[in-house]
Amino acid sequence: MENSFEEASFASIVLRMATGAYISLGLVENPTTGEKKKDLKTTEYLIDSLRVLREKTKGNLEKEEEGYLTQVISDLELNFVKAKEKK
Question: Is position 3 within any domain?
Fold first, then answer.
């Protein structure tokens, strides 16, 4: 039986957390419900979790990984602020 999961990597971990945040921002359809629904508390938790991940991995990431994580956090923070303003 073949494993259908993608290879585990730092980028895939960040992507999974970011996808959850985009879903909770209401920007991406929830694959389970098919709905777009905001849950800013969950978004805030996921952004904070990514910040913790950045802090705990500081100095241990490849340049590309660090850049990717920083870009994802920045984009989520910007979208979070926009979502709060529209609330």
Answer: no
